[in-house]
Specification:
The complex is a heterodimer of chains A (253) and B (173). Chain A is of the alpha+beta class and 253 residues long. Chain A has eight helices and seven strands; from the N terminus they run ααααααβαββββββα. Chain A is flat and about 80 Å long.
Chain lengths: 253, 173
């Protein structure tokens, strides 16, 4: 790590946002360098200066009271219900029921598709972010037996991890991410210069679902369900090799 | 009347909401208006809230309500899009004295924080007082994680310079 890197990473280091490998390099550099320690020290002194003072504004009691009153005034009241069940509304309600039934039948099909659409967008965004913010991994290791235990206690499931080194898809590491409204495991693999993010989380159903291919913003996306886990693989790798990656992951489980 | 799910999930974060609004508006009464308005908005959107991070969700609403308020009453304070370069000091890389930073008092720190452009101030408040992660800050402020990182670096650099200058004056007197 160079002195320029230290300047660049001093804030993420202080905030615990640096991946493990860079943290270690940062520590090493600080020990050896004559120039950089003051940069780090002054950042720490700034933080102490901010935290030493009572600068947090706690909401005064009257604000709490006003907020509560405002919330209750805007909340729907019970008379709303009694109005609905008034006789003149019943025929309208019967008509509405027909519409509701149609929606109940067709709705899940539509919403399932749009939910999967949204997840596709989320994982592509997560993939881009992981490359852009230099935050590909929280735990950097090519060893599945290092990466897997790292997730313990951070997720409510243990993500399946396969070793694909012999197939030229080396594991780079893992990190926590967020998709489909839940924390998920993100596993980073490499093929040459291409990064593959494999997102995994427990599926809502145990039935396997075959791979579905999608392409967004220049990234290829493959999703499938296998062994009770939902998988999403995102990469700028070509579709053929990404499919190969997906079948290797499935074969390895 | 018993507490609704909204009150149980969102109301516990009132202090965080007030603190952010107070720092963004820099005024007690404005903060009060913003917080009330933000909670009413939050109640309206609560049906759409599916996540598990109610605090960050609420803070995003407080942040947007504060910006709306500032745009209406003090538009010069929220120039968007925010121009980083314009506010960045020219003497980048200079290291202010750690010793000087140790001599700061509450008034100095408060004044220095209030002097920061609002786009930097919010990042400092969310990071130092709410201890949000870069990802959470990015979500609350609607910016990229890379921007969170660069704004934090610039805001802290600026704070260090402001505080060192103030502390130096104090020493000289």
């Amino acid at each position: 790590m160079t002195c320029d890197d230290v300047r660049r990473f001093v804030d993420p280091y202080l905030d615990g946002e640096l991946d493990l490998m860079r943290q270690v390099e940062f520590d090493d550099h600080l020990r050896q360098c004559q120039v950089c320690p003051p940069i780090y020290e002054s950042r720490r002194a700034l933080r102490s200066a901010i935290h030493a003072q009572q600068l947090y504004f706690t909401a005064p009691a009257h604000v709490r009271q006003h907020v509560r009153t405002a919330i209750r005034a805007s909340a729907p009241t019970s008379s709303w219900w009694s109005r609905i069940f008034a006789p003149q509304w019943i025929s309208v309600a019967v008509g509405a029921m027909a519409v509701v039934l149609a929606v109940v039948i067709a709705g899940p099909m539509l919403s399932r598709r749009s939910a999967s659409n949204q997840i596709a967008q989320e994982v592509v965004s997560a993939h881009i972010r992981s490359l852009m913010a230099n935050h590909l991994t929280d735990v950097s290791s090519s060893d599945q037996h290092t990466v897997k235990p790292w997730f313990a206690g951070k997720l409510d499931f243990s993500p399946p991890i396969v070793d694909l080194k012999d197939h030229d898809f080396p594991l780079v590491g893992g990190r926590l991410d967020y998709a489909g409204n839940r924390p998920v495991a993100a596993l980073a693999y490499r093929r040459g210069e291409h990064v593959i993010n494999l997102f995994a989380w427990p599926a809502t159903s145990n039935a396997d679902v075959a791979e579905a291919f999608d392409s967004r913003q220049g990234y290829n996306v493959l999703s499938w369900r296998h062994a009770g886990t939902s998988f999403w693989a995102v990469s700028d790798l070509n579709a053929t090799e990404l499919r190969q990656f997906a079948s290797l992951v499935q074969a390895g489980l | 009347m018993s507490a609704s799910p909204f009150e149980q999930v969102v109301l516990p974060h009132l202090n965080a909401a007030y603190n952010l609004a107070r720092w963004l508006t820099r005024d007690e009464h404005d903060a009060e208006d913003v917080v009330q308005d933000a909670f009413v908005r939050a109640l309206r959107f609560f049906d759409g809230f599916r996540g598990d991070d109610a605090r960050a969700w609420l803070l995003a609403i407080v942040r947007n309500t504060s910006y709306d308020y500032l745009r209406r009453h003090r538009p010069h304070e929220v120039s968007e899009p925010f121009n980083e370069e314009l506010h960045s000091p020219t003497e980048e890389g200079q290291t202010p004295e750690t010793l000087l930073l140790r001599r700061t008092d509450q008034v100095m720190v408060r004044r220095a924080l209030e002097t920061l452009p609002v786009a930097w101030r919010e990042i400092i408040i969310l990071r130092e007082f709410e201890e949000l992660s870069y990802k959470q800050i990015a979500d609350v402020a609607g910016i990229r994680i890379g921007t969170v990182m660069s704004r934090l670096a610039r805001a802290r650099g600026q704070l260090q310079r402001l505080l060192a200058t103030e502390a130096l004056k104090e020493v000289a007197e």
